[in-house]
Request: fold
Amino acid sequence: MAKGLTKRSENYSQWYNELVVKADLAENSAVRGSMVIKPYGFSIWEKMQATLDKMFKDTGHSNAYFPLFIPKSFFSKEASHVDGFAKECAVVTHYRLKNDGNNNIVVDEKAKLEEELIVRPTSETIIWNTYKNWIQSYRDLPILVNQWANVVRWEMRTRLFLRTAEFLWQEGHTAHATKQEALDETEQMINVYAEFAEKWMAVPVIKGAKSENERFAGALETYAIEALMQDGKALQAGTSHFLGQNFAKAFDVKFTDKEGKLDYVWATSWGVSTRLMGALIMAHSDDLGLVLPPKLAPIQVVIVPIYKGEEQLVQISEKANQIKKKLQDKGISVKFDDRDTHKPGFKFAEYELKGVPVRIAIGPRDLENGTLEIARRDTLEKESRAQDSVEDYVITLLDDIQENIYIKASDFRKENTCKVDTYAQFKDVIENKGGFVLAHWDGTVETEQKIKDETKATIRCIPFSFEEEEGKCIYTGKPSKRRALFAKAY
Amino acid sequence: MAKGLTKRSENYSQWYNELVVKADLAENSAVRGSMVIKPYGFSIWEKMQATLDKMFKDTGHSNAYFPLFIPKSFFSKEASHVDGFAKECAVVTHYRLKNDGNNNIVVDEKAKLEEELIVRPTSETIIWNTYKNWIQSYRDLPILVNQWANVVRWEMRTRLFLRTAEFLWQEGHTAHATKQEALDETEQMINVYAEFAEKWMAVPVIKGAKSENERFAGALETYAIEALMQDGKALQAGTSHFLGQNFAKAFDVKFTDKEGKLDYVWATSWGVSTRLMGALIMAHSDDLGLVLPPKLAPIQVVIVPIYKGEEQLVQISEKANQIKKKLQDKGISVKFDDRDTHKPGFKFAEYELKGVPVRIAIGPRDLENGTLEIARRDTLEKESRAQDSVEDYVITLLDDIQENIYIKASDFRKENTCKVDTYAQFKDVIENKGGFVLAHWDGTVETEQKIKDETKATIRCIPFSFEEEEGKCIYTGKPSKRRALFAKAY
Reply:
């Protein structure tokens, strides 16, 4: 199965594209820029969804659903928002097809909409138009709502999971009585995302604030989590926006506070998308295929029988099913692959390609000796173990794999993060080594843009965790108080 | 809260519309025909989704995701399919907006799509175009895939949940090597829907086959579950379609069977939607508001304190929280409403409106006596009980309510189902009494259409469960072998 998978060192980009398709995660559809998420890929996304959904609910949020279509006029109400999204909007103009008389199905020009509808690229406008009717007084606040939905942004260059015209995501939209409460919410949600990325995806992330250039269209602050991929490029994995009173003003959403005073409502929005699948794949996988963190793997353990003839298969199957049952009783998801159409070697390669964390093989000698062979996907190490209490061992092993791939990714990031103090050094690292680069910057949009134009590197964020430090902008020499995190990015 | 809710006997339709909005289930949006599903309503839908999703997985299905947009040419490939949906399609024609120079945001005419994209009203065409690449041999079959998605059908007259331009649903799309396997799947899924309707929603349904007139556009057989609402109108709550080889032929999907022979693949599709919310509401609710089956109620038990002054509230809260904890430990979802902004009477009415199955009230005398008051939403009966082991009593009570509302709905259906043998009787029942009418019919499209034109009643299905019986068509007098189930329908 893994035959034909390009090596990362040869062509990282091609390796990724092939892996997504060969591991049955997703494929391009007949609709430009839209993907089909296949059952195996979708089952990983479902695990992500379930985990995040619980985290959102544990922090007080409820789900709701708002319309797919947004009237064009709503879009125009927040100026920077429409600037940010107008160039990539799918527009519905008609509501009927007809037969033209020659058996061609054509758009019925009589069924033209008075006002065009935009397929949502994000839902701030339709939601704040709705909130207007939900909010009169401070008693109606906060509103803590999330929606799981599909959105459309007409991207010109698309890549499976990373950048698609249609993608799946969740978007939280909250409304608050005070600025501080909205800021706290913005921070809480970026922390939720970081925890999910690190503890479930095993992907270390850097939390920070976006520069003005990279902020969400309509936000006063955008917080992001940034992850480093194996090719030294950064990937923005989630964002949380403090929207101030911008959307409340655009849609005239006011509330009466405890003192009876009218004020505009404060807002946040935050989202992660199927892009997380791209981060997951690129952070851990190798030349044999996917490496999945056990907490998100649809199949955590696969059992493969090694046999000759029907009789051996029957005997091994009995034992394998006992082990499967024991593992399932501990809450582990197990597949016993007794297909007789494929050889063990083929199956081994297939589950390596699909990133199943633990593989158990049982042969006739194992039956005699009460043993089995356990292989772990992350290190590819194999060992022979007793069948007794294998379930306890597997639990420990799954935890160990989860931790190990996180550490591996963290070590990689450490090795590929550096501080530079001159623009020459900066360009050298960005061009030749890649990775995260911490450098002083004078804080202006102009300088950031020039650096981007000259090196393709952008400011991923101003990390929350870094301390104040006097320095000089690598580009202009002007004074700077803290380093920004630069990288080339997806 | 319930003040102002129109009585069912006065205006059933208005009662429904008001109830949906007042109970915080959904509301009309600014986008014609599209609704906003509010958090309380969405939490019921989430419970439906979770239950159905488990039932689908238990019967071997996996989830996947296919594009929102369908190229117009795909649509035209299955003739009856496009006939069925062309008149209600939202069409995307452009992919960019621009500023016209006078600060108006307009559609950029330069960004016109070469081929228009249809917002999916259902996904058979895009999915069968995808399956073409997934299927070569019998080894690739069956494909058992479901997707949870939004779809758009441009309905002219819309009603919250029952008929909206955009709605949420699931659509299963399966591919099989044999006709029999596809027929078995079609039947299995209508059985899954019936089980869900009866055991979770507590709504009795009649399973049967649709007449040719009412079949899905592109299907050879459509099986449906039909429920009876309190106003005597039927509601189609779910459908499962045997598509034969129609879509395989339209998209040229062939497979090699075990004998090496090429044949077209057999297909089914099946779906339920947010329309189920409408069925749930209309089947059980009363003039005070919603009546929810405990298995789908987001809040199963609400505890309301009856107190004067802060001190009493503190004492009662302590007891209430103990009881809440005990109930939660048994897996019951509980809300303790200690808001001091509203009186108990207001809260009672609010939870009646929202259909919370069980209400517990605790006052100062209850504290002294170790008692509490339990009220059940379905019968509105109240009783005083000891606080000890209240959790066991509540479990029994929730089961009892679940069963009772099912029996009530079944009794209603029994009282409102009749057999008639003449067209005069038929018209009399349909016009004056409503409900299900079992009548002989000659099996022709023409007769069905005439009866529909004259009485507005349609054939809901040919029930699976009824026995062969010689009779004469009520309209033409021609011979008939079994009765069809007629009703006016939503």
Notes: Chain A touches chain B through 62 residues (CB under 8 Å). The CA atoms of residues 378 and 404 of chain A lie 8 Å apart.
